[in-house]
Amino acid sequence: MKRWILTLLAFGGIFLFVTACSNSENSDSESEEGSDVEVPKGATEIVMWNLFSGGDAEYMQNMVDKFNEDQSEFFVNNIMQEHSEYYTKLLTSIGAGQGPDVAISHDYILPELVNQGLAVDLGDIASEVGIAWDEFNSNILEATIFDDQHYAVPIDTHAQIMYINNELVGNAGLLNDDGTIKMENSMEGYLEFFHTLKENLPEGNMPFAFSNSGNDPYWFWWGLYSQLGGRGITTEDNLENPSYDLDTEKAIQAAEFVQSLYHEEEIIPLNIEDFYSEFQSGNAATITTGVWATGIWEKTDGLDFTPMPIPRIFEQKGVWGSSHTLIMPYYDNADAEVQKGSAEFMKFVAENGAMWAQAGHIPAKDTVVESDEFQSMDYRSQYAEVASYVNFLDRNIHTRGVQSIIHRHLDTVWSGDVTPAEVFDEIENEVKDLIGE
Predict the structure, then answer these.
(1) What distance in Å separates the CA atoms of residue 99 and residue 103, rounded to the nearest whole number?
(2) What is the pLDDT at residue 55?
(3) Mean pLDDT of 246-253
(4) SS3 string of 273-340?
(5) Do 359 and 56 contact (CB within 8 A), yes or no?
(6) Longest dimension (CA), the chain
(7) pTM of this prediction?
(8) Contact between 433 and 405 (Cβ < 8 Å)
(9) What is the Cα–Cα distance from 414 to 270, expressed in whole angstroms?
(10) Of the candidates 38, 175, 187, 189, which lies 20 to 30 Å from 235 by C-alpha distance?
(11) Residue 391 parent element (H or E)
(12) What CA–CA distance (Å, rounded) separates 396 from 400?
């Protein structure tokens, strides 16, 4: 057993996770979550793990049910795992030979799986079942390729976008006849739009509902850093030993702009208790968050909204985004029939991306995005273009740790406690210590 697995097993009772897990090689040791599922007679069981909750969980289960109904050779047993422990449990269980047959993985976890030899190179089996890589969006697909080998089937990108309240923005005189906003694509145009909005909103309404801590402002900063031409925090040339690669000047410029929206420009109110509720209740004219909110807003009675890509504020288009992918865990004595069924399911999910798009996500396959089924859906096609310029997180094993460092430090910038220049000195020191540079 690899040293990293032994280390994980030594902490926090992780061994309990392993003994509770299931794999088709040992169907008698089913996990608790899937123990009450009856596999149809004659079907080969495919154990799937996912980390979804809320609407995402419902939409994925619908896809699993459709796959199981459409054929009788395989049966996917879809098991939802606890989100907070998902990746610890997934990596540990696969390494111990007791994980699932197919699993959801975010793109930024793939480097860890590939580096530890825990994910199957899908080349041969993808060809066998007819997965056509040339039908995928090239930007999304690239995040799943390592050394020219395919290690995952991407099913979406879920990017950060902007939503507007049509009534509030329209009453402020900032909507064109075609429903687009009156905003010049520049920093000056962005600020002018929001100051005009602020001046013309009824008392008690806010121009921009947003958090001042955590993921959302970090994602916004990342998108603006990308618009300035920044690529990442570390290099992608080595999974285990990357180098620090942040363009500090651009990182500071992006952070100064975001900070100004809270403080100098006073466009985003500080310490909003629940910025989603502010928009959902009609109190906020705009909100910037992930595409998954589309499924929330369209089910909200009386909310007249429009989704759109985040405007180009700096030199080029750029936005934060991640991707849900499906991976096939590697086992020494894998069952060929189970692997074939897993690949068939991966192909099915990718090809039926319009079902998954109900959650708001952008399908990974261009052929799905271009289909009549997707194009006829409300809202989704209005922001699908961002899939081609999402700037995915760095592709190495330190990505999660690096993001944690940056989240923590940037929160102090948004609160006004430190300057961006000061914080990026600290970030550089901590990231270099983490990656051993």
Answers:
(1) 9
(2) 85
(3) 98
(4) CCHHHHHHCCCECEEEEEHHHHHHHCCCCCCCEEEECCCCCCCCCCEEEECEEEECECCCCCCHHHHH
(5) yes
(6) 67
(7) 0.90
(8) no
(9) 9
(10) 187
(11) strand 390-391
(12) 9
Both structure tokens of 126 = 């993808």
CA-based nearest residue to 99, from 88, 114, 110, 107: 88
CA distance 341 to 44: 8
- Mean pLDDT, rounded, of the chain: 92
Q: How far is CA 162 from CA 224, 279, 302, in A?
A: 13, 12, 19
Report yes or no: 389 and 317 within 8 Å, Cβ to Cβ: yes
What CA–CA distance (Å, rounded) separates 411 from 301?
A: 34
In single-letter form, the type of residue at position 63 comes to M
Task: Tell me the residue type at 431.
Answer: V
SS (H, E, C) 156-210: EEEEEEEEEEHHHHHHCCCECCCCCECCCCCHHHHHHHHHHHHHHCCCCCECCEC
pLDDT single digits (tens) 330-387:
999 999 999 999 999 999 999 999 999 999 999 999 999 999 999 999 999 999 999 9
> In the numeric block, which tokens belong to residue 212?
């001042």
